[in-house]
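Margin note from the TA: students keep mixing up input and output lines. Inputs are the sequences; the output is the structure of the whole complex. Example:
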Amino acid sequence: MTAIIDYGVGNLFSLLSSFEKIGENAIITSNETDLINADRIVLPGVGAFSDAAQKLSASGVMDTLLREIKKGKPVLGICLGMQLLFNKSFEYGEHDGLGLIDGEVRPISDYVKDLKIPHMGWNALKFCAPKHPLFKYINEGDFVYFVHSYFATNCNQSLIAFSEYGAQITAAVANKNVMGCQFHPEKSGDVGLNILKSFCEMKEGAL
Amino acid sequence: MITKRIIPCLDVRDGQVVKGVNFKELKNISSPVQLAQYYGKCGADELVFYDITASSDGRKIFTDILKETAKNVFIPLTVGGGINTVEDFDWVLKCGADKVSVNSGAIKTPDLIGQAAKRYGDQCVVLSVDVKRVDGVFRVFSKGGRVNTGLDAIEWIKRGVDSGAGEIVLNSIDTDGVKNGFDLEMLQKVCEVAKVPVIASGGAGKIEDFITLFKTLPKVDAGLAASIFHFGEVEITDLKKQMLQNGIPARI
């Protein structure tokens, strides 16, 4: 079972539907017992970093989430959920993240001139070697759907895929069992569903 | 590099696609969910659902259609038609929409764009504008293109973007239905003032019209059309192939 953490940001209908589509039993929850019983956890998120970080710490699942991560349970952060995994973000000020992946989140506009912000639309994935298990069922050059104005930087250690948009835009990261993707797999057609499928095959302690 | 998006638009009334569709593979299909699934498979980059229902019964059916679509089609979904309040945003987003398109609602309540952008983020708010030349000036029309609001279109779009609209759909009433190509002159004017993505709508009749659009105006991000896709006059897979052959980035 996959637990999608509900901490009051964004709508999770499409995300839940995408797991149902690939035959995975998924639930939307903010219950600690569900996180403990889950085989893997998804941390979603849309909106502003500081607001989401506050809501997550106020949700009451933070301690359990961190404990489960420490035990080796696979976790996937999506979009802002991925950004929350980093040390800090510079979106409207400076805010602490969960510190599970080294690096920080900065405005794309600091690095990219002459292109529209947000980086919105379909962009091709470029893999870092070796190919990460999350990409088991997809190929380099496959397209995924992005919508974001901030991106993760200084994270070469954990970078597993990027896209080109005037600069190298961090697309996905992994630090053992902690994974994240900036794009929306639940909106990336079959490519996105295949990424979720490989995530659902991951087991605690195997990464 | 980001690809140019191809977006079919589905007008839905009382649970049916208006005018119906006629593909080689799908004859006379009027179920929006089936049609959305078909487009998802053949490479549409995004879908727009436009609710042109007036009755509350129709609204209920539209809600079910949205949910059913979001359960089966995993590409971005924009919903418009009758969006007048922030509560309307809330309603369609809960049904699985990713973006919400406002038109007449924003003209009636200009604050709507700002309020919605603040609550849901700029990326969620699409400003859709119906524009027609009147005495050589681009004017905004409301009520499905029937009423001249007197607003200067370029000013209106600038204001919308400043208030938080994250994307513009520009529908040229002058070229709509003519099938002789997009309104390049109007689009260029809008691209000069909009720093957000611009979606061209109105006038596409064949594949070459999309090629000309993206080659002439590299700042246009997407092309939207309805009946030429529904009636199979332009097949999205063929269109994408020809875009790539012409050096236009496309997702296949």
